[in-house]
Write a structure and sequence with these properties.
heterodimer; A: alpha+beta; 15% strand; globular; B: alpha+beta; Aldehyde Oxidoreductase, domain 4; 5-stranded mixed sheet; 29% helix; 2Fe-2S_ferredoxin-type (chain A); oxidoreductase (chain A); 2Fe-2S_ferredoxin-like_sf (chain A); iron-sulfur (chain A); (2Fe-2S)-binding protein (chain A)
């Protein structure tokens, strides 16, 4: 067992974990953060994507011990405390960017990172930026639309704040 | 009679909700991570299961040594098939397609022999999932290998003396023979043999053999089951499309009274037919939890899911199409071999049979014959996958129509138009004996052609061909139809299916005016909570937000037949309407009583009963409150206005559409790139256009993916080499394109909402559209077929004149050593 200390969804947490425990298992099994899900065992599907120190990672591809000292953000605290949705969440709902919703936490967290990197992506850049996340329901059409819409929402919010 | 232009987009007397792009009620919990997937469940004292699976396709189990596993840390029990034999029940074949169908007994856990790689031979029960998996590695199984039947065609030829049998004790691999003969059943006057003879003498005969490769449904949420045996009932949470059927079959095969079993399908992450199954894993978890008396959970890994969840498609289709020299189709004969894998699933035998009414599609033939032989092999079992029988049939006929067009030298759309049912001929009884409710193939095609820019793309294709461009353009067409709304119970009875096709609904008016609606359908991504709320809001005249849709729990929804076969709206939606209408009728005497008027003078609209010709009225919410207080109600009336309804459809519905695909083929590399995809679907009236668009897009990509990317591949020892998402190629956002979709509207005449069903349309239509485009791009090289998936290698090989590509088994290149292939 190894002691880890990290900040998850704006709370400090500390646990003894097996060295082989994956970050996604730690989030789900130790912290009960079941909003983050597991879709495969080969790091292909991206359903478990979270932000690690602000950058997207597949949390099945990170050991819990590697996250020691890090800041982890999951889908569960993306909305504001008052329930106001993050622009990416809002865009996925507005554009029907989800059906069964299983890939959605990963898609949304990946999109957050994508738009941080590139606030004004083209359709092509969106498609390449989501290549590591699989969806079986939507055919990606409305997911791509959601990401482009989220970019617009973010932009207008930022303009609004600046004005 | 249908005419597109004068049809409204929504049901004529519907209210403000139907036809509206309502954002989904489901989304709030799904986009914030407040989800209830089965694997999220944690109960006090819950134990975890890990399965030990056979690495061999066919073997005798000589011994199982569980001692080392049993001694491991925190292990409760290890059970083999022998331990569970008397309590584990069986996985049922609920659709024996013929009275004498041969179906091997399917025990959830093998006892003496395994019949496919991935079959379960033991289960380890531990305090944590990790400890269970560790110990599962220590279970030592001694096998005696048996020859495995892997190739579908060879398996069909084998008997006790020659070849390999998947189940030697059965004496054959042929599970059944099922035939539809149009002349025999009286749906045509001419017979198929006569028509073929005539075509051979003076017409055109096109003979082809098409391969429907094996696919994997690959829903995103791996299956998970939690069983809690504590308390008076046994509760099972499971990732399924069919909680009601699961409960019934658990009771029927284990002897536990149905009233003591509660099955809950909480949030379910996709199914596509893959969760239309009662699984060994569910049965084993149920048996173990009962045996130990503690809650138990089993969650599969993705690799387990791919090897043990049922697969789809997997057919060889031998086709004989007859036509006149001008291109008028006179008949079609279909000889189908369908790979069932090692066992017959819950509706596995029925899936290829569902194609029987679809090979003739939208066309008029003189004669038709469909012969189907389901065959047992030593591979993962095969059952429903999105479309289930209909995509296979649609692929065959839409490919053949292109071949016929090439043969007679006409545009493929022109040949289709020569043969299809005209819009003024509906209702139309086809050569297969189905009566199509409504449609307008001319209108959908005209709209699609215009959106596509058909003539300009044909001109560009010609120009590129003339110039010998290394990138050639192909145009693919699919003017498909399908049958939705499974199904009239009497029809299912005639087909020997074990259940009916009705659906149930309950509408409860709560005292606060909110409405609780219970449906027997079980959504897993389709948006029932939203679309069904729209229907009820309009019917009862209540706000959309005031309607709550409950489903997927047999204790809440006591009666239902679940979600598959594009049935939920067409059948389940109709049950909702009937139940709501009963509420309106039931509340009427009370409304009259409260208004001190005669019930005959009341009319109901926009949620209010009003006395005809006056402004006197009362809202349905007030009536609901009055029944709750029950202080003042008419003599002889019960104080309640809730109602239930069970709706059995009178017939199927037949959506259709025209799909046009432009694909570019690099003739030097064989690479196929989608350039444009247009579809105009006619799915009758639309409740929520936004949800419909999502269903179409997702369906399209699954069908396109069969054409270009996906295949479940076995090596020569019977190991699934495409056993992970590294090897089984699901498309990503970077592989796909955006689509242009639209609709024409010919309301269904078989239900009052006029809806037809859309869940499977995209998948059924798109596969032949894409392959037709690929073949069209390279037809001038002498290519008339390319095996699916049309990989660069197969396309390039076809251009080089070496045929359509190699068959599956020989073509397989294992990506890793099959040795010790424990998944």
């Amino acid at each position: 067992m190894t002691r880890i200390n990290l900040r998850v969804d704006q709370e400090n947490v500390s646990d003894d974990v097996e060295p082989r425990m994956l970050l996604v298992q730690y989030l789900r099994e130790k912290l009960g953060k079941t909003g983050t899900v597991i879709g495969c065992d080969t790091s292909n599907c991206g359903a478990c994507t979270v932000l690690l120190d602000g950058r997207s990672v597949k949390s099945c591809n990170v050991l819990a011990v590697q996250a020691d000292g890090a800041v982890v953000d999951t889908i569960e605290r993306l909305a504001d405390d008052d329930g106001t949705l993050h622009p990416v969440q809002e865009a996925f709902r507005e554009c029907h960017g989800l059906q069964c919703g299983y890939c959605t936490p990963g898609m949304i967290m990946q999109t957050v990172d994508l738009l941080n990197e590139n606030p004004d992506p083209t359709e092509e850049e969106v498609r390449l930026g989501l290549e590591g996340n699989l969806c079986r329901c939507t055919g990606y059409h409305n997911i791509v639309k959601s990401v482009l819409h989220a970019a617009q929402l973010k932009k207008s919010q930022e303009t609004g704040v600046g004005a | 009679m249908t005419a597109v232009d004068d049809r409204p987009d929504v049901a004529p007397d519907s209210g403000p909700e139907i036809g509206r792009d309502r954002r989904r009620k489901e989304d709030q919990r799904l986009i914030t991570g407040r989800t209830r997937w089965t694997d999220n469940m944690a109960l006090p004292g819950m134990l975890h299961l890990a399965m030990v699976r056979s690495p061999h396709a066919h073997a005798k189990i000589l011994s199982i040594d569980i001692e080392a596993a049993d001694r491991s840390l925190n292990i409760y029990e290890v059970f083999t098939g022998k331990h569970l034999a008397d309590t584990q029940g069986v996985n049922a074949n609920a659709w024996p397609i013929t009275p004498d169908q041969i179906a091997p007994a399917h025990l959830p856990m093998a006892v003496d022999r395994v019949a496919f790689a991935g079959e379960i031979v033991a289960v380890v029960v531990a305090r944590t999932a990790a400890e269970a998996r560790d110990a599962a590695e220590l279970v030592d199984v001694e096998y005696e290998l048996l020859p495995a039947a892997l190739d579908l065609k060879e398996a069909a030829e084998a008997d006790a003396d020659n070849g390999v049998l998947a189940h030697p004790d059965l004496g054959t691999n042929k599970s059944a023979f099922w035939q539809l003969d149009s002349q025999g059943q009286g749906s045509s006057t001419r017979g198929i043999d006569e028509v073929i003879e005539e075509a051979r003498a003076g017409g055109i005969v096109i003979e082809r053999e098409y391969r429907q490769q094996r696919l994997i449904p690959a829903f995103m949420e791996p299956r998970s089951t939690v069983v809690d045996p504590t308390g008076e009932q046994i509760t099972m949470w499971t990732s399924t499309q069919i909680p009601h059927i699961t409960r019934f079959l658990l009771a029927a095969t284990t002897g536990v009274p149905e009233s003591k079993i509660r099955v809950i399908a909480p949030d379910v992450g996709g199914g596509f037919g893959g969760k239309l199954q009662t699984t060994p894993e569910e049965w084993i978890t149920f048996a173990v939890a009962r045996r130990i008396g503690k809650p138990c959970k089993y969650t599969e890994t993705r690799s387990e899911s791919l090897v043990s969840g049922h697969h789809g498609r997997d057919q060889w289709q031998k086709l004989t199409l007859c036509a006149t020299k001008e291109g008028r189709v006179t008949g079609l004969k279909v000889d189908l071999l369908a790979d069932m894998g090692a066992y017959i699933g819950v509706i596995g035998g029925g899936v290829p049979v569902l194609g029987a009414w679809m090979f003739n599609a939208i066309y008029k033939f003189d004669a038709y014959q469909f012969n189907c032989t389901p065959v047992l092999t030593n591979k993962t079992w095969v059952d429903a996958y999105r479309g289930a029988g209909r995509p296979e049939a649609t692929y065959a006929i839409e490919r053949l129509m292109d071949e016929l067009a090439a043969e007679v030298g006409k545009d493929p759309l022109e040949v289709r138009e020569m043969n299809w049912i005209k819009h003024d001929e509906f209702p139309f009884t086809t050569v297969a004996g189905m009566t199509y409710d409504s449609g307008n193939y001319e209108a959908a095609t005209a709209k699609a052609k215009e959106m596509f820019g058909y003539d300009a793309l044909r001109a560009e294709q010609k120009e590129r061909r003339d110039r010998g461009d290394k990138v050639q353009l192909g145009i693919g067409i699919s003017t498909f139809t399908e049958m939705c709304g499974l199904a009239p119970s009497r029809v299912l009875g005639q087909l020997n299916y074990g259940a009916g096709g009705w659906e149930h609904a309950t509408v409860r008016m709560l005292p606060t005016g909110k409405v609780e609606v219970i449906t027997g359908t079980s959504a897993h991504g389709q948006g029932h909570e939203t679309a069904f709320s729209q229907i009820i809001a309009d019917r009862l005249g209540v706000p959309f937000e005031d309607v709550e849709i409950l489903h997927g729990d047999t204790q809440v929804s006591h009666k239902g037949l679940d979600t598959y076969g594009s049935r939920s709206l067409v059948v389940g939606g109709e049950a909702l309407v009937l139940a709501a209408d009963k509420v309106i009728e039931k509340a009427k005497p009370l409304a009259a009583h409260l208004l001190e008027a005669s019930a005959d003078d009341l009319e109901f609209a926009n949620g209010r009963y009003t006395v005809r010709g006056t402004d006197q009225g009362i809202g349905i919410a007030e009536v609901a409150l009055a029944t709750f207080a029950a202080h003042n109600y008419p003599e002889g009336m019960e104080p309640g206005i809730d109602a239930e309804s069970t709706y059995d459809p009178v017939d199927f519905s037949f959506p259709h559409g025209t799909h046009l695909c432009a694909a570019e083929v690099d003739t030097e590399t064989g690479q196929v790139t989608l350039r444009k995809y247009v579809c105009v679907d006619d799915i009758g009236n639309i409740i929520n256009p936004l949800i419909v668009s999502g269903q179409v897009h997702g369906g399209l990509v699954q069908g396109i993916s069969q054409a270009l990317w996906e295949e479940a591949v076995y090596d020569e020892s019977g190991t699934l080499v495409s056993g992970s998402f590294v090897d089984y190629l699901l498309p990503t956002a970077a592989d796909t394109i955006s689509f242009e979709i639209d609709h024409t509207t010919s309301p269904s005449t078989t239900n009052t909402l006029g809806t037809k069903g859309v869940g499977e349309a995209g998948t059924i239509a798109s596969t032949p559209a894409v392959v037709n485009a690929v073949v069209d791009a390279v037809r001038h090289f002498g290519v008339n077929d390319i095996l699916m998936p049309c990989t660069p290698e197969r396309v390039w090989t076809a251009i080089q004149g070496a045929g359509s590509g190699a068959p599956t088994v020989e073509d397989a290149q294992p990506h890793f050593e099959a040795e010790g292939g424990q998944q």
